[in-house]
Amino acid sequence: MISGLTRSIQIDAPAKLNLFLELHGRRNDGYHDLETVMIAIDRFDHLTVSLSESDTVETDCCWRPHDRLIAARYGSPDSSVVSLPNSHDNLVTRALQCFRETFHIDFGFRVELRKTIPAGAGMGGASSDAAAALQGAAHLCGVDPHHPDLLHLAGLLGSDIPFFFGSKNHRASAALGSGRGEQITSIDVGQRIPFVVVHPPVGISTKQVYQTCSIPTRATASEPIIAAMAKGNLTQVSGHLVNRLTEPARAASDWVDRVLSAISRTPVLGYQMTGSGSACFGICRTQKMASTIAHRLQAAGIGIAFAARSICIRSTVLGQT
Questions:
Q1: Which of 9, 122, 177, 245 is 20 to 30 A away from residue 160, measured at CA?
Q2: 177-195: per-residue pLDDT in tens?
Q3: What totals of helices (H) and strands (E) does the chain contain, helices first?
Q4: d(CA 18, CA 151)
Q5: Quick one: the chain helix, strand, coil %, rounded to 5?
Q6: Which of 45, 38, 2, 46 is nearest to 21 (CA)?
């Protein structure tokens, strides 16, 4: 029975960009040891998590109307830009099923998920959605959102998910991920960073990119970019952008080259692909410049372009009933 409990909660789930991603080796479990510097940005998916009298989990996932129209303009109906997992395959559904088992919850959940974060983009949309769903369920069920079992569950479900739980240090909008990426250390950022982000009409298989990547003989260190971020020096941050997955992503899709080439012709301070692709971004001097460049890139017809800025991750609760 769920009488007396808060029945639903609304949460915003932010996207992320990888400013640094270096590979250190292949693991026996099929993953890679890596270091990555992730930063959250103000592009959000929107979730409503509700308690259900049933003992099942159901996720209704779709694009918000405006974003569905943009996606349709640049992608075919079966493009990865518009293709979203059904309820059974959605990571949100799996996360909440595991939450029920871990915390012995008798009732179920229903989730309405309205997406604006591009799918197959390397922007962490699915991981952020799962983190938001877990935090929403924890709030509804009276579970501490930083309960060790909850954080452990997040790490098992996906390497990026722990990042989206945020930090008790509310100044930290970025983090260093190590291990598979699930071991999180907060990073202070000296100022909010303006970005322009472009996602082309196709996504890239994360599995394919990692299967074809190469481990460098000498890894690039993450300390220089972390130091530049702490000082708020955007020029230095831009000079230390690294993503070891860019080359295999380029081999998987020529859209990565097309987007990076288009961004390079704009007055950004630096540019790079995020995650395993296919979205790419540029660091801008100001938010106004980011908006101007985004409009120019959108008009160029290379995908969905938008301006964004870094944010601190919090469990953004919009309302509850």
A1: 9
A2: 999 999 999 998 989 999 9
A3: 10, 12
A4: 21
A5: 35, 30, 35
A6: 38
Exposed/middle/buried for 142, CB within 10 Å: 0-12, 13-18, 19+?
Answer: exposed
> pTM of the entire structure?
0.92
pLDDT band at 215 (very low <50, low <70, confident <90, very high): very high
CA dist., res. 276 & res. 273, Å (int): 8
Neighbours of 83 (CB within 10 A): 14
Q: Are strands 108-115 and 280-283 parallel, antiparallel or unpaired?
A: unpaired
**160 annotated active-site:** yes
Q: Residue 26 forms beta bridges with which residues?
A: 32
Nearest to 95 by CA among 41, 34, 136: 136
Peptide bond into 278 cis (omega under 30): yes
Exposure string for 147-170, b = 16+ CB within 10 A, e = fewer: eeebbebbbebbbbbbbbbbbeee
Any catalytic annotation for residue 168?
A: no
Tokens of residue 229, six digits: 């971020």
Backbone angles phi, psi at 50, to 5 degrees: -125, 145
Of 12, 16, 45, 129, the active-site residue reads 16
Which residues, 6+ apart, have CB-to-CB distance to 29 below 8 Å? none
- Per-residue pLDDT of 72-124, as tens digits, reads 554 444 444 446 788 888 999 999 999 999 999 999 999 999 999 988 899 99
Taking Cα atoms as reference points, which of 178, 151, 179, 136 lies closest to residue 6?
Answer: 136
Catalytic residue among 12, 45, 67, 160: 160
Q: For residues 164 and 109, what is the distance between their CA atoms, to the nearest angstrom?
A: 21
Helix (H) or strand (E) holding 63: strand 57-63
User: Do 87 and 47 meet the contact criterion of CB atoms below 8 Å apart?
Assistant: no
